[in-house]
Design a protein that fits this description.
By secondary structure, this protein is an alpha+beta fold. The chain has two domains: about 200 residues, 2-Layer Sandwich (60s Ribosomal Protein L30, Chain: A), CATH 3.30.1330.20; about 170 residues, 60s Ribosomal Protein L30, Chain: A (2-Layer Sandwich), CATH 3.30.1330. It is built from 20 helices and twelve strands. A five-stranded mixed sheet has the order 4-1-5-6-7, sandwiched between helices. A five-stranded mixed sheet has the order 9-8-10-11-12. It has a two-stranded antiparallel ribbon with strand order 2-3. The longest helix is centred in the N-terminal third of the chain and has 23 residues. The structure holds zinc ion (ZN). Zinc ion (ZN) binds next to α13.
Length: about 425
């Protein structure tokens, strides 16, 4: 009994002295990149809890920095549904060996934009494009553009690989102009651009948005008008919205209604003749990719274009539908009524290639806006040129084959 009491007392003394020693020793240091970074920058908290503090990367932080700066410039609160964020982060663009998708989380968790809300546009640019961010406010039509300094980012990413904590906290201390080579704010309201094109043209020439001006102002203005989400996905692949792309969206809508199939990727063969922006819309909507051997692309020379009869001068695509297990296929040749589109929008095709003046972008933006009213009325601009049947696999193979002009085979234009 006595021994037990002594042991208990001894244990108690050890515990108390241990606690005292604990109190006297310095408080354990918080991991630098984790808790202390959040303590120093409380606005990083949503991002840190989303990706996990221990996973925070300089790439998360560059997205945070871009969104944080833009929201302040535009005087917008996180989650405001008037914001559209646009960026090439996380599509294909890389910083050296590093892919850039983590910057997307920085943008989302700081601005409150997301794919689900339909206000995050992730644009396709090539692997070596600069990493950029744009934030557009639907109400004011203001847009803030930020382009990251690839060298600075690469340097911090290298450091992150070896000693993550210091790299993050030092990155956070950088000033915006040490991270971004370009920070610009412009009003990109379509009416303003269209009514005062000379003044915007100066900004186009100066590349105020790093050469991404056309992508940003077309997508932003059409998004503000209520662009459907599937069209936004089409625009992401194509990088901008132009009348050519919209014609593809309308052709897809027309085909969905008038020449449908339950399995587009397996039952359509599409021939683009001639190809233009439209074909990116078809790839996206029907999954009829070149790589799936569902899209064949055939150029028409000037001489061949001149030989097209009046009713086929605006020929766009040949669609062949071959239902699974069927013995033969059916075909439809469609065209797009450019005459009506130019006339209706008050534009002229001669301005399309006026690349040394404002006219090239002016005509496209003007038509883009006019065509928005036709997204659910495709038959007003898309028309059938010819229906036909394909009697055998050999006949289908011939239409796709190199050196064969399907429009000649189908009797739409004369042979050479
Ligand atoms: Zn285009």
């Amino acid at each position: 009994m006595k021994v037990k009491t002594m042991v208990a007392l001894l244990v108690l003394v050890m515990v108390v002295s241990g606690a005292l020693v604990g109190c006297a020793s310095p408080a354990p240091t918080a991991p630098q990149g984790g808790t202390s970074l959040i303590n120093d920058y409380p606005s990083l908290k949503p991002l840190a809890s989303f990706v996990g503090e221990e996973n925070l990367s300089v790439l998360n932080l560059v997205g945070f920095k871009a969104a944080d700066r833009a929201m302040k410039e535009l005087k917008l609160e996180k989650g405001d549904l008037n914001i559209l964020a646009l960026t090439d982060a996380g599509y294909i663009a890389r910083i050296g060996e590093y892919t850039t998708e983590k910057a997307l989380d920085g943008v989302m968790l700081t601005s409150g934009t997301s794919r689900g809300k339909g206000n995050l546009a992730n644009l396709h640019k090539p692997h070596n494009a600069s990493l950029w961010f744009a934030f557009f406010d639907k109400k004011s039509k203001g847009c803030v553009y930020l382009e990251a300094d690839n060298e600075v980012l690469r340097n911090y990413l290298e450091r992150e690989k070896t000693g993550i904590d210091a790299a993050l906290s030092e990155f956070m201390k950088l000033k915006d102009n040490e991270i971004f080579t370009k920070i610009a704010k412009e009003n990109i309201d379509a009416d303003r651009l269209l009514n005062n094109p000379e003044s915007w043209q100066k900004k186009m020439v100066a590349e105020v948005f790093g050469g991404n001006e056309f992508s940003i102002f077309t997508i932003s203005n059409l998004w503000a008008m209520g662009l459907p989400n599937d069209f936004l996905k089409v625009a992401e692949l194509h990088d901008h919205i132009c009348p050519g792309l919209t014609s593809g969206y309308l052709i897809a809508e027309y085909i969905k209604k008038n020449f449908p199939t339950p399995a587009p990727r397996y039952e359509y063969t599409v021939i683009a003749i001639p190809p233009w922006c439209k074909d990116d819309a078809l790839i996206q909507i029907f999954e009829t990719n070149v790589g799936h051997k569902r899209l064949y692309v055939k150029h028409l020379t000037k001489e061949q274009m001149a030989q097209l009869p009046e009713e086929a001068k605006n020929v766009a695509n040949v669609f062949i539908r071959w239902p699974k297990g069927a013995q033969k296929g059916e075909g439809l040749v469609v065209g797009f009524d450019w005459d009506k589109a130019y006339e209706g929008s008050g534009t002229s095709p001669k301005d399309l290639k006026a690349f040394d003046t404002y006219k090239w972008w002016w005509v496209r933006l003007k038509m883009d806006i006019w065509m928005m009213d036709y997204l659910d009325k495709p038959e007003e601009l898309v028309f059938a040129i010819k229906e036909f049947s394909v009697e055998s696999q050999a006949e289908l193979d011939n239409l796709k084959a190199a050196g064969v002009n399907p429009l000649v085979e189908l009797g739409i234009m004369p042979g050479p």
